[in-house]
Amino acid sequence: HRSAFFPPVRIVIKEVDYIKTREDDETANLIWNDSAVQHEKIAELRNYQRINHFPGMGEICRKDCLARNMSKMIKCQPQEYSFIPKTWIFPAEYTQFQNYVKELRRKRKQKTFIVKPANGAMGHGISLIRNCEKLPAQEHFIVQEYLDKPFLMEGYKFDLRIYILVTSCDPLRIFLYNDGLVRMGTEKYHAPSEANLSQLYMHLTNYSVNKHNENFERDETVDKGSKRSISWFTEFLRTNDYDVAKFWGDVSELVVKTIIVAEPHVLHAYRMCRPGQPPGSDSVCFEVLGFDIILDRKLKPWLLEINRAPSFGTDQKIDYDVKKGVLLNALKLLNIRYSSDKKRNLAQQKAEAQRRLYGHGSMKKLSAASSDWEKQRHTLERRREELKERLAQVRKQISRDEHEKQHLGNYRRIYPPDDKLLLEKYESLLSAAFQTFLAGRAASLQKEMNNPLKRMKEEDILDLLEQCELDDEKLMGKSSRQRGPKVGDSEKEVGRIRKLNFDSESVFLPPPFPLCFPAGRMHWKPPIKSLKPSPAPSASPTLSGPIRRSISCPRSIASLSSPNEVRALSTRPSPTVPIATPLVRPSSATLRSHSLSRSGSAHRVPHSNSLGTIHSNIGDPLINLRSKEQEAELVRQTLAVLTAMRIRFPGKTEEEAEAVLDEILDNWKYHKSKVASYWLVKLDSTKQRKVLDIVRTNVRSALQRIWREPDVESLHLYRLFNRVFNRLLWSHGQGLWNCFLNTGSSWETIFSKSSEVVSPQELQCCRRLVQLCRDCLLVVYKFVSESRGSLTGLSPEWDDTR
Question: What is the average pLDDT score of the chain?
Answer without folding.
Answer: 75
